[in-house]
Design a protein that fits this description.
This protein is α+β, with helices and mostly antiparallel strands and 648 residues long. It folds into five domains: 9-199, Roll (Chitinase A, domain 3), CATH 3.10.50.40; 209-314, Chitinase A, domain 3; 325-418, Chitinase A, domain 3 (Roll); 433-537, Chitinase A, domain 3 (Roll), CATH 3.10.50; 546-647, Orthogonal Bundle (Recoverin, domain 1), CATH 1.10.238.10. It contains 15 helices and 29 strands. Strands 1, 2, 3, 4, 5, 6 and 7 form a seven-stranded antiparallel sheet that branches. Strands 8, 9, 10, 11, 12 and 13 form a six-stranded antiparallel sheet that branches. Helix 13 packs across helix 14. The protein starts with 8 loop residues before the first strand and ends with a helix. It binds calcium ion (2 copies).
C-alpha cells in the first residue's frame, strides 16, 4: 500500500487501484484510463488541504516501503501539494474525505461490491443544517458499495473505510443530487456532508473465517459433524459490541454440531476444534441471523464474531475409551464381575478441570464390579484389571450421568475422565495365596497348630504401602499357632513352614481384618505378607502343659518314684519330667518357664498339699479322642491360670 499510515485526507478512490493501472477502478468514477485518472487527481489535489503531519507519502516513515511506481506517484503528489499551498480555496469539485477517527487495527477495508452497515448524519455544507440521520431513525443503514445504489459521492467516499472508522464525506452536487435536488429535502446544487460511522462490512463471497488463538499440545480428537459439544463463547458484533456470552451465564452452550441446531456459520466454524482450543470464528450475516437479526441484541445483517473455547466433546455413538497407563508385570488374576475392588481415582472433565478425587478423601473408592453400583461406563471399565494397574478411562455422558449431570458437581452431558489406580480386589471365594520364595534344603520339621514360632514379617497393602513390620520391633514376633492370636490368613500362611523358609502370602479381607479393617488396615483390604520363620518350638495342645510323645509309662507312679521310697517330692517330680523332655518322650509347653509349669503340675497332683505325691493322689487320664496320652492336669482353676499366664 502506498499510504502507511493512512492520511487523514484524500480524495475518493483507492491508491492501490490508481497504481495498479486501474484494473479494479470503481465504476462510479467513470474513468477508464490511468492517464485520465491522473489528470483528475491533479485537478482535485489543487483543491485539497493536506495536514503537514500526514502527507500521503510521508518520506521518513514509508519511503522504504514504496515501490518505484509509488515513488513516481508520490513525487507527483508533492508537486500537487506545492500547488495546493500556493493556490486558493475554490468550489468543491470532487468528494473530500476526512478520516478523522481511524481505528488502530483495520483488518479489512471497504471495497466495491461490499455490503456495509453504517450510521450517518447528513448535513448541508452551506449552513450545517441536518437533512437526514440514521441515528434519528434508530437504525443503521445497510447498502452495497460501488454499484450505483448510493449517490456517486457516497459510493466513492466510503471506499477504503474500516469498521469503527469515523469519516466525514463532503460531496459536491454533481456527485449527489445535482442541480435539481430531491423531494424538497435537498435543494438544487447542495454540497452535502456525511459524518459516517462504519459498523460492518461483508461480501457475498465471504466465508466463515477462523483464527486460531491457542491449541492444546495434545489433541486426541476434533469436532466432526454429529458430535455433541459444550463450549464457552463471547459473541460480539464486528464493531466489538458484545451481544451475548456464555461466560456471563456461567454455563457452557451445549449442542450438536452440523445438524442445523446452530447458525450455519457456527456449525461450520466449530468443526476441527480440540477440547481446550480457543479460536475466533467470524461469520458473515448470511451465515448467521441474516436480514432479521436476532432479538434486540443482534441487528439485521450483522457479521458475528465469536471467541470460542471448546470445553467438551463426544459423539453419541462413543464407547468408553480405555488407555493403559501402567500394568504390573506378572499379573495373573484380573477383575471380573462380582469382585470387590478398592481403587483410587482422580476425576476430571475433558478440559482437565477436576471434579472429584478419592485421594482428597484419603480413602479408596470401594465397590462390587459389574453389579450396577457405579455408573455404567465405570462398571465396564473396572473389568479385566490387575492389582496395581493404572488406567485412564474416558466415559461419554450416556455411560455416565447423562443429560442431567449431578447437581453442581457434574454438568449435563459431560464427558468424564478418570485416572484410576487399582489398589486391590478380591472375591469372597478367594483363599489365602502362599508363594514360597525360599525353602531350606533341610525342611522336615514344619510348623503346625500349638507350635511356638518366632517369625519375621512385613505387612503391606497391595500397592506396596507398608503397614507393619517385625523390624519395627527389634526382635522377631512370637506366637503360638492355633491360639487365635493372629488373623486367620496369617495363621495359614505361617503353617507348614520350616525354619529359614520364606514366603509371600496374599490374604483377602475375609481371612484378614474384614470389612471393618483394623488399626492401620483399611476396610476390606487385601494384605500382603512377607514371612520368614526364624525359630520353631513344637508345642502342646491348648490347655495342656506337658504331653507324652509316646506311650506314657504304665504304671506311672513307680516310674516317677525314682528312688522307690513311695513318695515323690517336687525335686523328684521335676527330675522325672525333665528326663522325659530330655529323652524326647514328652514335651513341655514351649514359651513358658519350665520350673513354674512343673511346680504347677506338682501342686495339682499333690492334693493334700503336703509337699509330696503319693500313689493314690496320682490320677491318670487317657484322652480318648487324641494321641498321645496326657497327664491330667485339667483342673478348671489351674487351666485358667495357665492360659492367663501364657498371655502375659
Ligand atoms: Ca521318691
Ligand atoms: Ca501329698
Amino acid at each position: 500500500m502506498c499510504f502507511s499510515p493512512p492520511p487523514r485526507y484524500y480524495i475518493a478512490g483507492k491508491c492501490k487501484n490508481l497504481l495498479d493501472g486501474g484494473t479494479s477502478l470503481s465504476p462510479s468514477l467513470g474513468l477508464d484510463s490511468a492517464a485520465a485518472l491522473l489528470r483528475s487527481v491533479s485537478l482535485h489535489f489543487t483543491r485539497i488541504r493536506w495536514q503537514t503531519d500526514s502527507l500521503p507519502c510521508d518520506p521518513p516513515r514509508s519511503l522504504s516501503q514504496l515501490s518505484q511506481m509509488d515513488l513516481t506517484f508520490c513525487s507527483l503528489l508533492f508537486v500537487l501539494h506545492a500547488a495546493a499551498v500556493t493556490g486558493g480555496p475554490g468550489p468543491i469539485v470532487d468528494v473530500i474525505v476526512d478520516r478523522y477517527d481511524i481505528p488502530r487495527v483495520c483488518p479489512r477495508e471497504v471495497q466495491t461490491e461490499d455490503f456495509i452497515r453504517y450510521h450517518f448524519n447528513g448535513t448541508f455544507y452551506a449552513d450545517g443544517k441536518k437533512f437526514d440521520s440514521s441515528h434519528d431513525r434508530g437504525k443503521a443503514f445497510i447498502s452495497q458499495v460501488g454499484l450505483g445504489r448510493l449517490i456517486t459521492g457516497m459510493d466513492r467516499g466510503l471506499q477504503g473505510m474500516c469498521v469503527n472508522e469515523r469519516r466525514r464525506i463532503t460531496i459536491p452536487p454533481h456527485l449527489a443530487y445535482g442541480s435539481i435536488g430531491t423531494g424538497g429535502v435537498i435543494p438544487p446544487d447542495a454540497v452535502l456532508v456525511y459524518d459516517v460511522l462504519l459498523l460492518d462490512i461483508w461480501n457475498a463471497e465471504d466465508k466463515v473465517q477462523i483464527r486460531a488463538l491457542s491449541k492444546p499440545a495434545s489433541c486426541n480428537r476434533t469436532v466432526v459433524v454429529s458430535d455433541f459439544v459444550r463450549y464457552h463463547y463471547n459473541g460480539t458484533l464486528l464493531s466489538g459490541e458484545a451481544f451475548d456470552s456464555s461466560h456471563s451465564r456461567n454455563r457452557t452452550y451445549d449442542t450438536y454440531v452440523g445438524q442445523g441446531d446452530l447458525i450455519k456459520g457456527m456449525d461450520e466454524g466449530l468443526l476441527g476444534m480440540c477440547v481446550g482450543e480457543r479460536r475466533i470464528i467470524i461469520i458473515p450475516p448470511f451465515l448467521a441471523y441474516g436480514v432479521n437479526g436476532s432479538g434486540t441484541q443482534v441487528p439485521p445483517q450483522a457479521t458475528l464474531v465469536f471467541e470460542v473455547l471448546m470445553v467438551d466433546l463426544f459423539n453419541p455413538k462413543d464407547d468408553l475409551i480405555v488407555e493403559l497407563k501402567e500394568v504390573p508385570e506378572g499379573c495373573t488374576r484380573r477383575t471380573v464381575t462380582g469382585d470387590y475392588i478398592r481403587y483410587h481415582y482422580n476425576g476430571t472433565f475433558q478440559d482437565g478441570t477436576p471434579f472429584d478425587s478419592s485421594y482428597q478423601r484419603n480413602s479408596t473408592y470401594n465397590t462390587y464390579i459389574g453389579m450396577g453400583y457405579v455408573i455404567r461406563g465405570m462398571d465396564k471399565a473396572l473389568q479385566g484389571l490387575c492389582m496395581g494397574e493404572k488406567r485412564r478411562i474416558t466415559i461419554p455422558p450416556h455411560m455416565a450421568y447423562g443429560e442431567d449431570g449431578v447437581g453442581d458437581l457434574i454438568p449435563g452431558s459431560a464427558v468424564l475422565v478418570f485416572d484410576i489406580h487399582v489398589i486391590d480386589f478380591h472375591n469372597t471365594e478367594d483363599r489365602v495365596q502362599i508363594k514360597v520364595t525360599n525353602k531350606p534344603k533341610e525342611c522336615s520339621v514344619t510348623s503346625e497348630a500349638d507350635d511356638l514360632i518366632h517369625y519375621r514379617y512385613n505387612c503391606s497393602l497391595m500397592d506396596g504401602t507398608l503397614l507393619y513390620s517385625s523390624d519395627h520391633n527389634k526382635s522377631p514376633s512370637i506366637t503360638t499357632l492355633g491360639a487365635n492370636s493372629v488373623i486367620l490368613g496369617l495363621e495359614k500362611g505361617l503353617s507348614g513352614m520350616c525354619v529359614g523358609e520364606r514366603r509371600e502370602v496374599i490374604i483377602p479381607p475375609h481371612w484378614g481384618h474384614g470389612e471393618n479393617g483394623a488399626g492401620g488396615v483399611p476396610r476390606s483390604a487385601v494384605l500382603f505378607f512377607e514371612l520368614e520363620l526364624v525359630e520353631l518350638q513344637k508345642g502342646v495342645p491348648e490347655g495342656y502343659m506337658f504331653v507324652w510323645l509316646e506311650d506314657s509309662p504304665e504304671p506311672l507312679f513307680p516310674a516317677m518314684d525314682l528312688n522307690g521310697d513311695e513318695e515323690v517330692p517336687l525335686e523328684e517330680f521335676s527330675a522325672f519330667i525333665m528326663l522325659q523332655v530330655k529323652e524326647a518322650r514328652g514335651r513341655l509347653r514351649p514359651g513358658v518357664d519350665a520350673d513354674s509349669i512343673i511346680k504347677d503340675m506338682f501342686n495339682n497332683q499333690d492334693r493334700n498339699q503336703d509337699g509330696k505325691i503319693v500313689e493314690d493322689e496320682l490320677k491318670l487320664k487317657v484322652d480318648e479322642e487324641s494321641e498321645p496320652l496326657f497327664i491330667d492336669i485339667i483342673v478348671v482353676i489351674l487351666l485358667c491360670y495357665c492360659v492367663s499366664k501364657l498371655k502375659e
